[in-house]
Write a structure and sequence with these properties.
The chain has about 280 residues and is mainly α. It has one domain. It has helices at about 60-80, 110-115, 125-135, 135-145, 155-160, 170-180, 185-200, 220-240, 240-280, and strands at about 5, 15, 40-45, 50. The strands form two sheets. A two-stranded antiparallel ribbon has the order 1-2. Helix 1 (about 60-80) runs parallel beside helix 9 (about 240-280) and helix 2 runs antiparallel to helix 8. The longest helix is centred in the C-terminal third of the chain and has 43 residues, at about 240-280. About 40% of the residues are buried.
Length: about 280
């Protein structure tokens, strides 16, 4: 089944996935790994983790290029049906937070202060929702017709975002997070985080989330923002955030070792997809 992405300017649901917000399952048994400190980089500017497997996949800028090119081809398709359509230019917005690192809650002060314990704000998604609400029903129907696999052009199909079922890189990302969260080193770091937060008076409900404390009030309200800021401080003081991503990186290395030939082939295809996106954009 294809993952679904929100059409960069619009409207609706399209193919997407790859957000590392909690994969349901990983492929195969958890491999043995060696955890190396600082093997991964937490990139506050993009809200993402950069790990070994990212060498083979799309970076945030390239994802936006593919989305913009996809939108332009959808515009062309809708125009051929005799309707007008101009989608928002995703390149004019920050990267969508659907690709942000959300596995263990907020980890930057900026996000904590902005949205507290709530999901990260996504200016691009908000613009898409606003456009969706204003879109005539017949235009929306025309867009969905253009997304029909029987109608979609080969170029449009190549540019679609891919989830773990279509992309080995995305499968490696989701599997590595799943494996990492079961690792003893990850669990020890989680204990340090919860202990730090416990010292500040917070409690956890494991049935809801082992990473985010229970609060009274809205997650993006005053209490949620205060708890999120404390959470970010504890992630830093205990080193838990860096430990989490270093464990993920170790499992990514194991995944790469097992699948290197296929990953190299996918990287080549990815570079071709990015080149196609750049060509489509330049021709419009």
């Amino acid at each position: 089944m294809k993952a679904v992405r929100v059409l960069a300017a619009t409207v609706a649901v399209l193919v997407l996935s790859g957000c590392v917000a909690g994969p349901d399952a990983a492929d195969g048994e958890r491999p043995a790994v060696e955890i190396v400190p600082d093997a991964a980089v937490l990139d506050e500017a993009t809200g993402t983790m950069r790990g070994p497997i990212d060498t083979y996949g799309l970076d945030p800028r390239e994802r936006r290029l593919l989305d913009r090119a996809s939108d332009l081809l959808i515009e062309d398709c809708v125009h051929r049906s005799g309707r007008e359509l101009t989608l928002i230019d995703v390149l004019q917005y920050p990267p969508s937070t659907q690709w942000s690192l959300n596995y263990f809650g907020p980890w930057t002060t900026e996000r904590a202060a902005r949205t507290g314990l709530a999901p990260p704000a996504d200016d691009r998604a908000e613009a898409s929702r606003a456009e969706d609400e204003a879109m005539p029903a017949d235009t929306y129907a025309a867009i969905m017709d253009c997304l029909d696999p029987e109608v979609m052009t080969e170029e449009a199909a190549v540019l679609e975002q891919r989830g773990p079922e279509e992309s080995l890189v995305e499968r490696g990302r989701s599997s590595s997070f799943h494996w990492a969260s079961e690792d003893a080193v990850w669990q020890e770091a989680l204990g340090r985080l919860q202990g730090c937060m416990g010292d500040r008076g917070y409690v956890y409900d494991a049935s809801r989330s082992p990473y985010l404390p229970t609060i009274t009030g809205e997650p993006d309200g005053e209490a949620g923002i205060r708890a999120a800021l404390d959470h970010v401080e504890c992630l830093g003081e205990t080193g838990a955030a860096q430990t989490f991503v270093d464990v993920v990186a170790a499992y990514q290395v194991a995944f790469i070792t097992e699948n290197e030939g296929a990953l190299v082939a996918e990287e080549k295809e990815t570079r071709e997809r990015v080149a196609l996106a750049e060509r489509v954009i330049s021709e419009h």
